[in-house]
Amino acid sequence: MVDKAAIDRMLENLKTYVAQLDRLSGFGQDEFLSDPDKLGSAKYYLIIAIESCLDISNHIISSENLRRPTDFADTFAVLHENGLIGKALEERLQNMARFRNLLVHPYGKVDDKRVHEFLKTNLSDFDEFAKRIANAIDKSEH
């Protein structure tokens, strides 16, 4: 059984991280890219926001005895297979998981312009994920 209180805490943390990312998205590309503090903060908050989505997903997968994911991206396929998120969101979240791998592992250099672009175009995916999960958890309680 899913621990609703734990999911609520993780969703609240995700909301905090996304608020920081939203603040950083307000900077123009030149100002953002020329400031290592802004860039580093964005990368950090992206990593922990994506990790939060993965943690929430894995908690649900484990609690509900769903199929074990083969990798981070597959985590979101499991949610889709079980009707928790739609196909389009699944694909966007899978891209996030792959982007997280680029940010975390030194084998790939991330084009910093992609970080700024991500802030400008993908933050709503976190909100959609949070809403879908909260709705699914609420439905499972009734």
Describe this structure in words.
- With 142 residues, the chain is mostly helical.
- It has one domain: Four Helix Bundle (Hemerythrin (Met), subunit A), CATH 1.20.120.
- Helices cover 80% and strands 0% of the residues.
- It is built from 7 helices and no strands.
- The protein has helices spanning 4-25, 29-34, 36-63, 72-81, 87-104, 112-121, 123-141.
- The longest helix is centred in the middle third of the chain and has 28 residues, at 36-63.
- It is globular.
- The mean pLDDT is 95.
Secondary-structure map:
Elements: H1 4-25, H2 29-34, H3 36-63, H4 72-81, H5 87-104, H6 112-121, H7 123-141
With helices defined by DSSP (H or I, 4 residues minimum), what is the helix count? 7
Major beta sheet summary: none
Name the helicity range: over 70%
Specify the CATH homologous superfamily. Answer: bsu32300-like
Based on helices, strands and strand pairing, what is the structural class? mainly alpha
CATH topology: Four Helix Bundle (Hemerythrin (Met), subunit A)
Summarize the structure in short.
The protein is mainly alpha-helical and 142 residues long.
Q: What attributes characterize this protein structure?
A:
single chain; about 140 residues; mainly alpha; Four Helix Bundle (Hemerythrin (Met), subunit A); 7 helices; about 80% helix; globular
